[in-house]
Every structure is written in C-alpha cells, then in structure tokens.
C-alpha cells in the first residue's frame, strides 16, 4: 500500500474542509445554549421542558454514536460527514420556523443526528491522511478548532438573535451548515488508505461492537470522556448562560462574552495536551484526572460561596470547566491505540457517548430540581435563582464520583492488559 499521500498538501486540504464542517456542527450544537431565555419565551416553557430540548438532542447524539461508528468503519468518513451536514441544514431550518415545543424538538433531533456523524468521522480521517506523532496532536487540534463554532454561537448568532429574532438567527445557522455540505462534497475524500483501513469491516456489526468493547482501552476511553466532558456540555448547552445571567446577576451581553473563555482555553490547552499525550502516552490518565480535580474544586468553591461569586472566581470556574473539553479528547486516543484500524470508528463512537450520556442525565436532573425548588417555594419569584442553582448544580459532583470511580477501575484493567500483552 502506497503511503505517498500521507502528510501531503492534499491531506491538509481534506482535513481543513472536514474541520470546517465540524466547526459548523459545534455552532449548531451550542446555539440553543445561548438561546435558552428566548426559547423559554417563544415556547412558553418551564425549566424541565427547556432541559428536554438539550436532553433530546443529546440522547439522539449519544444513541447514534455506536451505529455511526459501525457505519463509519464500513462506508468511510466522507459519506457520514456529508449526511451529517445535510441533516443539520434541515434541522436548523425547521427549528427556525418552529412555533411550539413538538416542532422545536423535531428540529433538535435532526440537528443531533447530523452532529453525531461529524466529529468521529473527522477523527477517522486522520490515520487515512496522516501518520506518526501527528495523529494525537491533530486529534487534540480537531477538538480545539471545533470550539470556534462556540464563538459563532456566542457572538454573531446571539447578536442576530437579539437584534433580528429567532427565525433569522437559526436560518443563518442553517445556511452555514448548507455551505459546509457543499464544501464536503467538493473536497473531502477518504483517501488511498481507505481500502486497507476497512479490511475486516465486513464483519457482523454486533461482532465488531463486542470486539471494541472487549478492549479495556475502549472502556477507559468511555469513562475518561464521561468524566471530563459532561460538565462542559451541561454548561455550554443549557445551564451555563442562565446560571451566569439569573443566578449570578451578570448582564446577558457580558455573559455571552465570558463564555468565549471556553474557546480561548481550548486553543491554549488542546495543543499542549496533544503534545503531552504524544510524548508521555503512559501518563494520559493522569493528565485527565488532574483537570477533573480542577473542575470539581472550582464548582465546590462557587456553589459554597456566600452570595454571588466575584467575577474572577467565575472566570477561573469557566477556565477549569473548559479544560475538560481538551481533556476529553484523551479518551479517543485510548480508543485509537487499543484497537485495530477496522475497529477504530466503532470504538471512537463508543467513547464519544460518554460525555453526552453524562450530560443529558445531568441536564435533565438539574431542570427537574430547578422546577421542584420553584414549586416548593410556592411558584413565586424567579424560576432561575441562585439558591435553586446551588442545589441543582451540586448534582454534577455526584455524577463526577460515578465517572471517576469507573475510570479508575478501567484504568487498572487497561494496565493489566498491557502488562499481559507486552
């Protein structure tokens, strides 16, 4: 098999346009997080219904990961990225004209299905177009570049939403997704390595899934992704913006600006973690656990702070939570290094469910607690208030205990597997 195409100019062209679609996917995914207050008014929704919008999208996303991984190993990344862009285009267009909860949920389901196909497909492209130590670094850079989509939802999308309204804002996002559909069709290719990489992909899908799950690195990757990613997804997709505005009393424009901290942290931490995991693969779990400790400490400080926390504390909280995004990519590196090429798409799909399963459970339970606190107070005053947020957001710490416990169990199994197999 010729490898002359690896690390070539064409490699970077293919990767660049695949990344553009992933940037779009992140913008589509996080758009509802900054539209939460407008959606509450548009759909006349309570906290649980608002949480349901994000939960439905996340359930679809997480539920699609294993089928997407199986399809990815069989048909290749180009078809799945194209299909994902098509679904996101249709979903955001439908959401733009939605006037009630059922219509809005249909739009988010389509967005979730399309989003589910993109990231794992871009990761699958990397070993098809690049080689050597570039792959773990590019894996981190993929997550880093994708966070530019958050800037799109935080700034231009939110500005259009406030100035022009719901339909124009979501129509613009639909147009962006359509543009990436065209560029994917024109420029993204599987490459000459695809015929070799898909050898063994004809195996029965259930057998491939079981083979990936038997690898302790796949399971370690799942729990690493679960523990590092669910907090950032909870914050960015649903509860971060309302917490800052109505829990901490921050101006809505300032809150949107503060959420750009997540992008800055991703740009700074992502390449650093990529270099560290490439140079010290045996310490990957330690890097993830260190970042998890930072997230837990900062949430504990903010939730226990008497009254509204000062701005500098909130910024440090967002830095700590944002670092979970780059740390979650370590989970995909476990999947890649513990599985043969024909199982890597399936294993990556399994890993990618972790942070989203954790997030949809957390988002929904937080919404349930917020509504319970509101009813317990006689349904008077503000639905979103600091005392209710303190109780509801504490649920995240319980979820983290579960995630880290299983992460440590699977890390022990992975180390024993490596010792037994040299």
From TrEMBL:
Residues passing through the membrane, by range: 12-29, 49-72, 79-97, 109-130, 142-163, 169-188, 220-241, 253-274, 286-305, 311-335, 347-369, 389-409
Subcellular location: Cell membrane; Lysosome membrane
InterPro entries tied to this protein: MFS (IPR011701), MFS_dom (IPR020846), MFS_trans_sf (IPR036259), MFSD1 (IPR052187)
Domain Major facilitator superfamily (MFS) profile: start-end pairs: 13-415
Pfam families assigned to the protein according to its UniProt record, in alphabetical order: MFS_1
Main location: membrane
Catalytic activity: L-aspartyl-L-lysine(out) = L-aspartyl-L-lysine(in); L-lysyl-glycine(out) = L-lysyl-glycine(in); L-alpha-aminoacyl-L-arginine(out) = L-alpha-aminoacyl-L-arginine(in); L-histidyl-glycine(out) = L-histidyl-glycine(in)
Transport among keywords: yes
Annotated GO CC locations: lysosomal membrane; plasma membrane
Claim: Protease is one of the keywords in the record: no
Membrane topology: Multi-pass membrane protein
SUPFAM superfamilies xref list: MFS general substrate transporter (SSF103473)
GO MF terms held by the record: transmembrane transporter activity
Keyword tags: Lysosome, Membrane, Transmembrane, Transmembrane helix, Transport
Membership in a protein family: Belongs to the major facilitator superfamily.
Function: Lysosomal dipeptide uniporter that selectively exports lysine, arginine or histidine-containing dipeptides with a net positive charge from the lysosome lumen into the cytosol. Could play a role in a specific type of protein O-glycosylation indirectly regulating macrophages migration and tissue invasion. Also essential for liver homeostasis.
PANTHER family on file: MAJOR FACILITATOR SUPERFAMILY DOMAIN-CONTAINING PROTEIN 1
Subunit structure: Homodimer. Interacts with lysosomal protein GLMP (via lumenal domain); the interaction starts while both proteins are still in the endoplasmic reticulum and is required for stabilization of MFSD1 in lysosomes but has no direct effect on its targeting to lysosomes or transporter activity.
Name by which UniProt lists this protein: Lysosomal dipeptide transporter MFSD1
Species of origin: Glutamicibacter soli
Source species taxonomy: Bacteria, Bacillati, Actinomycetota, Actinomycetes, Micrococcales
């Amino acid at each position: 098999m010729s490898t002359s195409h690896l690390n070539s100019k064409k490699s970077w062209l293919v990767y660049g346009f695949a990344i553009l679609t992933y940037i779009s996917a992140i913008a589509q995914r996080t758009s509802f997080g900054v539209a939460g207050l407008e959606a509450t008014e548009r759909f006349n929704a309570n906290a649980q219904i608002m949480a349901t919008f994000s939960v439905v999208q996340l359930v679809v996303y997480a539920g699609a990961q294993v089928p997407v991984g199986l399809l990815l190993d069989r048909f290749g990344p180009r078809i799945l990225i194209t299909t994902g862009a098509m679904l996101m285009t249709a979903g955001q267009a439908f959401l733009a004209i939605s006037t009630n909860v059922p219509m809005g949920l249909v739009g988010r389901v389509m967005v979730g299905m399309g989003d589910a196909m993109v990231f794992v497909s871009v990761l699958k492209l990397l070993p098809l177009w690049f080689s050597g130590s570039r792959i773990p670094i590019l894996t981190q850079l993929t997550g880093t570049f994708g966070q530019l989509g958050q800037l799109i939802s935080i700034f231009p999308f939110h500005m259009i939403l406030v100035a022009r309204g719901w339909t124009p804002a979501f129509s613009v996002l639909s147009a962006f997704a359509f543009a990436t559909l065209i560029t994917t069709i024109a420029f993204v290719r599987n490459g000459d390595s695809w015929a070799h990489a898909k050898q063994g992909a004809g195996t029965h899908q259930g057998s491939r899934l079981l083979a990936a799950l038997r690898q302790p690195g796949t399971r370690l990757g799942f729990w690493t992704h679960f523990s590092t990613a669910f907090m950032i997804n909870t914050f960015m997709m649903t509860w971060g913006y309302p917490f800052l505005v109505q829990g901490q009393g921050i101006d809505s424009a300032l809150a949107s600006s503060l959420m750009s901290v997540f992008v800055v942290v991703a740009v700074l931490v992502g390449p650093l973690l990529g270099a560290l995991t490439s140079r010290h693969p045996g310490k990957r779990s330690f890097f993830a656990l260190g970042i998890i400790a930072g997230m837990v400490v900062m949430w504990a400080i903010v939730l226990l702070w008497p009254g509204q926390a000062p701005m500098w504390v909130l910024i440090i909280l967002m830095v700590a939570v944002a670092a979970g995004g780059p740390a979650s990519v370590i989970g995909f590196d476990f999947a890649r290094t513990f599985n043969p090429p024909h199982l890597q798409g399936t294993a990556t799909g399994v890993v990618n469910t972790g942070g989203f399963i954790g997030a949809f459970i957390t988002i929904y339970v937080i919404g349930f607690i917020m509504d319970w606190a509101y009813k317990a107070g006689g349904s008077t005053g503000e639905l979103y208030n600091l005392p209710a947020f303190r109780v509801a957001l504490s649920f995240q710490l319980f979820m983290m205990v579960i995630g880290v416990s299983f992460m440590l169990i699977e890390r022990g199994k992975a180390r024993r597997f490596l010792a037994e197999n040299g």
